Amino acid sequence: MISDIAAVPLSPPAAQQPSQGELALCRHCDLVQVMPELAPGEEACCSRCGLHLDARHPQPVLRPVLYAGSALFMLLLANFFPFVSMFAAGNSNEMSFFDTSSVLFSEHHQWLAILIWLLIQAVPATCMLAVLYLKLGMLYSLPARTWVARVLYMLKPWSMVDIFLMGLIISFVKLVADADISLGPSFWAFCLFCLLHLRTFQVIDRRELWSKIAPCPPPQVAAHAGKTGLQQNLKLCQVCTAIIPITQTHCSRCHTKVRLRHRSSVQNTLALLIAATLLYIPANLMPIMRTVSFGETIDSTIISGLILMWQDGAYPVAIIILIASVIVPVAKILIMFWLCYLTRLPFSRRQRHSSQIYRLVDWVGRWSMVDVLVVAIMAALVRFDLLMSVYPGVGALVFAAVVILTMLAALSFDPRLLWDPLPEQEEARFDATT
Question: How far apart are alpha carbons 375 and 290 in whole angstroms?
Answer without folding.
Answer: 9
